[in-house]
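Posting for a labmate who doesn't have an account.
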Amino acid sequence: MTPEPLPDSPQNHDPADVWTVLGRWRAEGRRFVLLTVVESRGFTPQKPGGRMLLGGRGETAGTIGGGAIEHDCLREARALLSEQGSGSGGPAGVTRTVRRQLTTELGMCCGGEMVVHMEVLEALPRLVVFGAGHVARPLAALAAGAGFAVTVVDARADWLTAERFPDAARMLRDPEVWAREWPGGPADHAVVTTHDHALDQRVVQAILPLELRFTGLIGSLAKQRKFALRLLARGFEEEAVARLRSPVGLAIGARTPEEIAVSIVAELIAVRRGGTPERGWLPPARARREPGVAPVAADPGMKGAGR
């Protein structure tokens, strides 16, 4: 009689399928564990090079041999994902290696020994920069260097060039139109810094319902106040307006486009790593209910910096 499979044992897949699924999961921005058999001795159900993937929701691809060894390694892989905290900004590249004697430790009949290496993998966090102006150029370069996958969106071909943005994907589209089509999600980041305040407003209105991990708007505190009032007037809830980080960037006294870009990337990194940078403002209605809370003044160099 064939024994029932263990609950955590997946159906076997073609080993090549592991790479197909890995590529798809990376493209989807997912976080997962790659398990690889790196050593084996004696009779074992899988030899070095056998690979398997475990996703955050328990989905799998490939196999490292099935049975008790796979069940045990999947348990270790789930713990590895849990320790890092999915979506918490914990680093990729976290590893664990387990060595198991199949008979004495796991009760398998094989009698051999396997060593399985596990590594947490995740796609680079995505950052969309709306606008290809003076701040966007150093912002895209610094963010790419800090480990973000950057996309810059602008309809101006003479601004959105490979020479100005060598490390970013370039979308030659109207930012408002592209924003309305973008299926951004809770792992994505966006900074709105176009050449026109009215365009900024329309882009913000398009992306604010997406509940991104980070939604930043460049500009002065006066600009932020006007935007907040307009958003509230258009029916946005205070909680939604409060997600908009504006003036974007940590308060370091930035004045030049390069300095402003440094302040923005610093805030992006802080949020990515699970920090909670001090907010520079509150939605007007909430601020009225809390008269003792004073907003932080914007850096003077923020005014008109997106052009």
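Reply:
Got it, the structure tokens are right above this. The longest strand covers residues 31-41.
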